[in-house]
């Protein structure tokens, strides 16, 4: 495993992890996505299922949302953005603060992981 990680690093990967379905997730800079996708699979003898750029908030940039107007306003904005055909994905950095599960679900359903 250590040697495989080094090979992934040489291909441009920054980190490797397994997701909940047992797939290997390779983290890299957006401009390295294609190079890493084509380089890591063959080195590990793996079949590439997909290659996407995922915008993932760093822990130090996440914003805690509380109930009330800010949660409702954000949920409304996210829902409105999803209605535009030009919008391919909506990413954000909120974390659940003091709000109900229903309020949080409304926000989560309009965010792309």
UniProtKB/TrEMBL annotation:
Which residues are in the TACO1/YebC-like second and third domain? Answer: 5-93
Do you know which Pfam families this protein is assigned to? Transcrip_reg
Q: What is this protein called?
A: TACO1/YebC-like second and third domain-containing protein
What is the source species? Colletotrichum higginsianum (strain IMI 349063)
Lineage of the species this protein comes from? Eukaryota, Fungi, Dikarya, Ascomycota, Pezizomycotina
């Amino acid at each position: 495993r250590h040697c495989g990680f080094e090979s992934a690093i040489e291909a441009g990967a920054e980190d490797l992890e397994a997701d909940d379905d047992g797939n290997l997730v390779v983290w890299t800079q957006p401009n390295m996505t294609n190079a890493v996708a084509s380089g890591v699979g063959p080195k590990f003898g793996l079949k590439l299922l997909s290659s996407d750029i995922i915008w993932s908030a760093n822990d130090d940039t996440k914003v805690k949302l509380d109930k009330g107007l800010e949660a409702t306003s954000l949920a409304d904005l996210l829902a409105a953005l999803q209605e535009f055909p030009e919008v391919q994905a909506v990413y954000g950095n909120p974390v659940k603060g003091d709000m109900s599960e229903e309020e949080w679900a409304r926000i989560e359903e309009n965010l792309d992981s």
